[in-house]
Specification:
The complex is a heterodimer of chains A (253) and B (313). Chain A is mainly alpha-helical and 253 residues long. Chain A is built from 10 helices and no strands. Chain A has one domain. Chain A is 77% helix and 0% strand. In chain A, helix 1 packs across helix 5 and helix 3 packs antiparallel against helix 7. The longest helix of chain A has 31 residues. By secondary structure, chain B is α/β, with parallel strands linked by helices. In chain B, helix 3 packs across helix 4 and helix 3 packs parallel to helix 5. In chain B, the strands form 3 sheets. In chain B, strands 4-5-6-1-7-8 form a 6-stranded mixed beta sheet, sandwiched between helices. A 4-stranded antiparallel beta sheet of chain B has the order 10-11-9-12. A two-stranded antiparallel sheet of chain B has the order 2-3. Chain B has 2 domains: 192 residues, 3-Layer(aba) Sandwich (Rossmann fold); 66 residues, 2-Layer Sandwich (Alpha-Beta Plaits). Chain B has 12 helices and 12 strands. The chains are: A mainly alpha (253), B alpha/beta (313). Chains A and B meet through helix 1, helix 3, helix 4 and helix 10 of A and helix 2, helix 3, helix 4 and helix 12 of B.
Chain lengths: 253, 313
């Protein structure tokens, strides 16, 4: 019986998937994952929406965007510092796989967490508040690209050599919270001054909000094609920058 | 690290002995690809750890100084996950996991979460995980540090058995007794540099003048320590519990002096031993550092445990 399989790429993908499944079993229910990934976006949404004269169906895209943003980007900053502290991250570094596959596995865990949490507002919106998905392709693109980009953002920040989630979450929130205010979450982009519209176009969250609105029958200020292109570009940039930062970390040790 | 250069022979148990902060763990981290050295290379079974890292890592297993098992998973799942990291086919990894759990006497509790296991059991799981891929070389970083005596003996016996089956072992330790008992070759490292490298016996020969006579009196007189220091050919006297160790390069002369001393003072000896130089003598001479006592090691380990527990929260 052979103890190894062939195909380099197949092997890397299988290992990445094994890492993702292990992370799901081990870290999805850890308190920091629940707090930063679920409690935080839902309570932020409630504090924003309660008392506003806005139909819930139109608020659902905002909730979807927030959950995709916070849940996807929280897994890396929770898992990687905890694995550093327990030296389980070293187990990956000493196994015969590339750093890309290791981080791809971590990114996958973030994607599945973000998408899994964000599907709840979609289903609740449809079942209870009459919201609808008029463009399923746009919604799938929104979920896939946003969870990938934000999960990779979390992995990039997790290169900060901390051993507790808080050491990574704090700088990450310095980026996440301001993005909320420039991304058309609280104020539609069309109502922003021109210079703010230009700034908001640079935020990946803007394009998640836009795609979610577009898929739910609303308008996308920048258009879905630009939204998809920019989210794809951010996903690639975050993923590859994250890998570079993790390699730099190894060199610094 | 400061330009270290050494070779480990296939089938050897190679010990890396040094005080805390000497660079033992750093060396292991560079040899196993966790850290990237600023310059230089390392070859594992013919593969360069930087340029052929996948091939090199397929040859090795590593057991770090803390048991890096997944506490939320069972022993079985820990081993299976390791098998997946090495991309072992399902049937093969399950067979191998069962084989190792049986070998390490963990099969009956293999479905329980590791969380409740003792340190010794976790260390055994760690070693089993390192052997999942049938590695040719096993890196062990302080393998018995912080374990109770029984676990220490079990782990040492396991390492010896694995080595007898042909596994090359590279272990770091600050336990001189462990290095002396288990290693075919020892490198003594201090401040990032290898200060000596040879077999334990050859290293001991370098300090042949450090022989000693060990005595214990039925009732030791009050000023015995100073009086023993006055003996001819005695360079130092160390009190170890109820025994006195007289360091000398002429043990027969010291034995004669001791006989005269007991006769003159009407003393009765209950133990007399002549001892050759130990690896500890070599270590102390080369590093100038007294090895940590078991109590000190336990205190240090407890201090390290606190931040780890906080991190888990």
């Amino acid at each position: 019986m052979s103890n190894v399989r062939s195909s380099h790429y197949g092997r890397e993908i299988r290992v990445a998937w094994a890492i993702a499944v292990k992370d799901m079993r081990t870290y999805y229910t850890k308190p920091p994952s629940l707090m930063f990934g679920i409690l935080f976006p839902f309570s932020l949404f409630l504090s924003f929406s309660i008392g506003r004269n806005m139909p819930l169906a139109t608020q659902i895209p905002i909730l979807i965007s927030q959950t995709l943003f916070f849940a996807s980007s929280s897994i890396g900053p929770v898992v990687i510092p905890m694995e550093r502290a327990n030296q389980t991250f070293d187990r990956f570094l000493t196994s015969p796989v590339s750093l890309f596959s290791i981080l791809l596995g971590k990114t996958l865990a973030g994607i599945i967490y973000g998408a899994g949490v964000s599907i709840i507002p979609v289903l609740v919106g449809i079942a209870l508040f009459g919201s609808q998905i008029v463009n399923i392709v746009a919604m799938i693109a929104c979920f896939a690209l946003s969870s990938l980009a934000f999960s990779a953002l979390g992995i990039m920040f997790a290169s900060i050599p901390g051993q507790t989630p808080g050491q990574v979450m704090m700088p990450l929130n310095f980026v996440r919270i301001p993005l909320l205010f420039i991304s058309g979450v609280f104020t539609p982009i069309g109502e922003l001054p021109t210079w703010m519209q230009a700034v908001s176009m640079l935020s990946p969250l803007t394009h998640t909000v836009e795609l979610a609105r577009f898929a739910s029958g609303g308008e996308a200020f920048f258009g879905p094609v630009l939204n998809i292109a920019i989210l794809s570009a951010y996903a690639a940039v975050f993923l590859f920058t994250g890998i570079r930062f993790h390699i730099m970390n190894q060199r610094k040790e | 690290m400061d330009h270290i250069d050494f070779k480990v022979r296939k089938g050897d148990v190679f010990g890396f002995l040094g005080p805390n902060g000497a660079g033992k763990t750093t060396t292991i981290r560079m040899l196993t690809g966790i850290s990237i050295p600023t310059e230089g290379t390392a070859t594992i079974m013919g593969y360069d750890i930087q340029n052929e890292s996948v091939e090199a890592k397929e040859q090795m297993g590593i057991v770090p100084d803390v048991s890096n098992v997944y506490n939320e998973l069972s022993a079985w799942d820990n081993l299976i996950f390791t098998g997946k990291l090495y991309d072992m086919p399902k049937a093969y990894r399950e067979k191998r996991a069962e084989e190792l759990l049986r070998m390490f006497d963990l099969l009956d509790r293999c479905k329980e979460k590791v969380q409740g296991f003792s340190r010794g059991m976790k260390r055994r799981i760690c070693i089993a995980m390192a052997l999942m891929n049938r590695s040719h070389i096993l890196f062990l970083d302080e393998p018995t540090s912080g374990l109770d005596i029984q676990s220490v003996l079990v782990i040492r016996d396991l390492i010896t058995r694995l080595n007898q089956q042909g596994l090359t072992v590279f272990l770091t330790t600050h336990n001189i007794e462990e290095a002396s008992q288990m290693c075919d070759h020892v490198a003594i490292i201090n401040h990032g540099r290898i200060v000596a490298i040879d077999t334990p016996e050859k290293l001991k020969r370098t300090v042949e003048n450090l022989q000693s006579v060990e005595v214990a009196f039925e009732t030791a007189p009050p000023n015995v320590l100073n009086e023993l220091k006055e003996f001819p050919n005695v360079s130092n006297v160390v009190k170890e519990g109820d025994k006195f160790r007289l360091i000398t390069n002429a043990p027969s002369s010291v034995l004669t002096s001791m006989w005269n001393y007991t006769q003159e003072n009407n003393l009765r000896l209950i133990t007399v031993n002549t001892l050759g130089p130990s690896l500890e003598d070599v270590f102390v001479r080369l590093t100038g550092i007294r090895p940590a006592t078991e109590e000190e090691k336990t205190d240090r380990m407890k201090a390290q445990e606190i931040p780890r527990r906080m991190a888990k929260r």
